[in-house]
Every structure is written in structure tokens, then in C-alpha cells.
Please model this.
Amino acid sequence: MIKKKLVFPVLLLLILAPLKSVNSQVKFKKDSNPFVKHLYTADPSAHVFNNRLYVYTSHDENDAAYFDMLDWHVFSSDNLVDWDDHGAIFSIDDIACAKKWAWAPDCIERNGTYYFYYPVERTKIGVAISDSPIGPFKDAIGKPLIDNTGQVEKIGPEPIDPAILIDNGQAYMFFGCRELRAVKLQDNMTELDGDISTVKINGIENDKENFGGFYGEGPWVFKRKDTFYFIYSNGWGKESTLVYATSKKPLGPYDFKGEVMDPVDSWTSHGSIVEYNSKWYIFYHNMNLSGDNYRRSICFDEITFAEDGSINRLVFPKKKKGKQK
Model:
């Protein structure tokens, strides 16, 4: 009798076990910012693949008391109103070399394969691959692509926030907290091509954290016409925001230009800029929904450029004050 009673529960477990790794898709509409409201998300990396816009994010837990993220999500839309959350596309459980901190990712397509770059444990950057922009992704090489263990002077104290650019067939990866690094990637996108270098930004030599062009974290590079725009955060705090510099060469040196947008209401600023249907958009996060710096939410707004190519600063409407007596 005992054996017979166990048959159904065992079969049920066998059937349900594979479902842990299956993406659960949620459909929703953007009605305001933040536009993802059913879970906490941060560090948006936006790309256009096959005429559809995809946004790759980290995922803050509902009870987060630190940046203890466990997985990454991707959202997509073909009109910026109707969105799909394709679920968790990759997680700490899928990585042999790490146990914590699934932080800001990036993804790029090359020759029909999608390469997902992820930072873990504040010391490593890995790469996963898929034949679809929504995954599932699998670890490509079984070890970190970047690891600063014993190589802090060469790689930097905190190799996080990978950002990938392909220009004229050459792939580049930018990364780093407080110290900006870059390296070329080989055509297979899973091996480094040459030495890691420091990227110079002119005009920030005396700037302090949360001021001017101080380099904090969150690099993002895109090309518009013949100019490379380098977007990043200038620190951590109420006054920090996304700023930018420009260059005619992908590896610089870059010249600091100014602020991209008003500060958001969270300690961290991290964003991306992408062109879609002939308009430009900036994706970023804030903590408007939660009021908590460890539970952030992604947003986006249209941005424009001046005649000289400079970014017209995104200004948020002032919050209305209560009626005075």
C-alpha cells in the first residue's frame, strides 16, 4: 500500500521538476513610468533585434535588503506600449563559477547567435549564448571571461557592468566600477582579443563623486552618425545621475560633455540609449514604486539631440507640492 501511495507524488514531482527552468511570460502595457510594475527590475540594457526592441535587466528581489539579485529578465515590444516579460532567461543557478550577485548585464547578436554578458560576485564577467534573444541561455565557456583574482591592477578593482559594442566588425567590451576598462573581443565573442586597456575621459580630472564627469559605473556606448557616445553614472547618491562623453574612436579618448538627465530618486543610476523607429530612447531605473534603493524599477523616455550632436538633457516634471494654507 505504501508503494502505491508514493507512485502519484513521485510522478508529479518528475513532471513538475523541469518547469523550474521554463520561462513564464507576462504580457502588460506601458501606462506610465516605471513601465514594469509586476516585479522589481534595474540596469536596463536596450537593443533592437529584427525590428523588435528588447530590454535586458537585473532583478531585485521583493524582500531585498541589498543587491542580492539571483537572475536576469528580458522584456520586449514592437510598439513600446504592449510588452512581454519573457521571464528569467539566466540565473546564478546556471553558473558554475559564482554563487551570488547577478548584476547589470548586456546582450548582443552576432551571426545569428545572441551573447549575454553578465557580472557576478563583483569580480567576474561571464558570457552565455542562445539562438534566441529571449533565451534560454547557457554558459558558453564554463569559466569567467574576465576575473580580477590576482589581477586587480590589470583588470580593475571591480569588473562589473559589461557593455558591448560592435563597430566595423570589431567587438568591444567596456566594464568597471570607479575605474573604466575596455578590451576587444575575438570574432567568436567568447575570447578576449588583446590586452585590457584603461579608457581616458578628458575634462573630468578634478571631478569628485556625484559631481561633473566623475566616472562611477554603468558604462554604455553607442554610435550616432560618426560619433561614439559614452554614457555612465557619475556616482551614488541623490545628486548623482547619468552623464556622457563623446569621441570619434570607440576606445577614445573621450571628451566629457555633461548630464544626460535629471537625477533619479535612487542611490544608483544605470541606463542605456537606443534608436528605435527613427526615434531615440533612454532606459533607466528609479525607486518610485518601492521607495527602497534595493528594489528598483525600469523606465524609459524619448530623448533628442541638438544640431551640434549634443544630447538635450532629459528634465523630469517638478513634483507638485501640496496646497498651502
User: Anything to note?
Assistant: Residues 1-22 have pLDDT under 50 and may be disordered. The two ends are 77 Å apart (CA to CA). The chain has one domain: 23-303. Residues 2-16 form the longest helix (15 residues).
